[in-house]
Amino acid sequence: MSYVSEVLQEVVRRNPGEAEFHQAAKEVLDSLQLAIDANPIYQKQGLLERLVEPERQIMFRVPWVDDEGKVRVNRGFRVQFNSAIGPYKGGLRLHPSVNLGIIKFLGFEQVFKNSLTGLPIGGGKGGSDFDPKGKSDREVMAFCQSFMTELYKYIGADVDVPAGDIGVGAREIGFLYGQYKRITGLYEGVLTGKGLTYGGSLARTQATGYGLIYMMEAMLAAKGIGLAGKTVVISGAGNVAIYAAEKAMALGAKVVSLSDSTGWVYDAEGIDLAAVKEIKEVRRGRLSEYKSYRPQAEYHDGKGVWSIPCDIALPCATQNELDGEDAKLLVKNGCIAVGEGANMPSTPEAVDVFLANKIYYVPGKAANAGGVATSALEMSQNSMRLSWTFEEVDARLKGIMVNIYHQISAAAEKYGVPDNFVAGANLAGFEKVADAMLAQGIV
Ligand code: NDP
Ligand code: 2IT
Fold first, then answer.
1. Domain(s) of CATH 3.40.50.10860: residues in the chain
2. Cα(86)–Cα(71) distance, rounded to whole angstroms?
3. Can you give the C-alpha Rg of the chain in angstroms?
């Protein structure tokens, strides 16, 4: 049995029930086979065994009191996966589906993504099975304060720097930051995605979505294809989806769909983004309300955006939201490119369909790295006690995304699998982390 297969078998045996973590580990390690074969030192140094084992996993009780006076208990997580190239860095997810396996898949992906940014950040992820939907601001604050009352022991500006993810935006980061500062007395860049009045970076809100479009623009340009005039289908209606839509439209593409966990809209003339922002960012409402702004649009309950004919598909909601059948439908309807705003939104079957059909497919760890890259820029600004202009941050973000495209494309070439950006992203992300781990000894 190959070294890679042995390690994967152990991952499954030692982490029972963590399906998403198994999936992420398999996808990465399968691609690394090429690098492993070329460098026997990796096996000798137990590099893969170390890579798949988080440095530290923290799980804790999060008790809080709801508006009816009832005591509620959630489970909190922070997985500090790998600090070979910098302090742990990665978001916090608040969603009822959160469990250890999901946080570990996200933390594992984050290690390679953060490496691709070229910035000095290790990988981590955290969150809770708390559901912010339908909760009052006071309830969200009570939860966040309780969560931070335990988490603060393990984080710090040079230790571990959490940020947002699903269910965590500016409101939650504010409550978390306030509690951290109150307990520790430290005014430091311990979280990113902060508000602009207390150390946040301009363009962090837009960064993941804008970065996704900069990646697609760079990748398509290398193939002689422009974004202008292309029809784009996007899933999700949260932070990533909204700003991906905004930048795609600014570059002349037509975005015809968005979705949330209840349903999806199809607006043939192009999505009215001001309406979506009003519904989602201001009122925290449902996408079903979109028709009251745009009566000519279609709204459907359930899943369905991947049935819309498009040139470019951008899954920006959640893991495994696009399966093999969806992928076949996209190909059949003429889709030429897929870029992942979400983390692991395409199932392994869908990825196989994209690669077999020569779809230009950029996986999440490369395509959505603009968010964490801009978080690292926020950390730099905090350390320097300076703030850069929107234009300056945005220009750096764009430079980073173009550089990531060059890295993943060059790695795919180097290992003899041109245009396979799955292999390219995994191999390019791995190299820096592996070198740093080898240099630091058996730790
Ligand atoms: P948000 O919470 O802002 O939005 C998530 C969106 O996806 C919502 O519209 C949500 O619908 C929808 N959704 C549909 N199905 C699900 C489901 N089963 N679970 C959760 N959400 C669902 O999150 P983000 O936009 O920040 O994150 C979207 C994706 O992008 C995630 O995979 C995240 O890990 C990834 N990502 C985020 C980054 C960031 O900077 N925020 C950076 C890199 C990646 P509803 O409103 O009904 O819940
Ligand atoms: O998945 C991700 O990269 C994020 N949710 C952003 C993490 C960060 O630290 O900004």
1. 54-188
2. 38
3. 21
The predicted-structure confidence for 392-440, as pLDDT tens digits, reads as follows 999 999 999 999 999 999 999 999 999 999 999 999 999 999 999 999 9
CA distance 6 to 123: 24
Please state the pTM of the whole predicted model: 0.98
CATH architecture of the domain 206-367 equals: 3-Layer(aba) Sandwich (3.40)
- 113 given a catalytic annotation: no
Q: What is the pLDDT of residues 189-213, one digit of tens each?
A: 999 999 999 999 999 999 999 999 9
CB of 104 closer than 6 angstroms to any ligand 2 atom: no
Would residue 229 be called left, alpha or beta, if left means φ above 0 and alpha means ψ between -120 and 50 degrees? left
Site to substitute for ligand 2 among 110, 190, 368, 378, most atoms within 8 A of C-beta: 110
Cite the residue boundaries of each domain of the chain with CATH code 3.40.50.720: 206-367
Spatial neighbors of 112 by CB under 8 A, at least 6 apart, are 28, 123, 365, 425, 426, 429, 430, 433
How remote is the CA of residue 165 from the centroid of ligand 1, in Å?
Answer: 7
* Residue 316 alpha carbon to ligand 1 centre in Å: 7
> 163 CB under 6 A from ligand 2?
yes
Distance CA 423, CA 289 (A): 41
CATH number (3.40.50.10860, 3.30.450.20, 3.20.20.140, 2.40.110.10) of 54-188 reads 3.40.50.10860
- Within 13 Å and on the Cβ side, how many CA atoms surround 422? 25
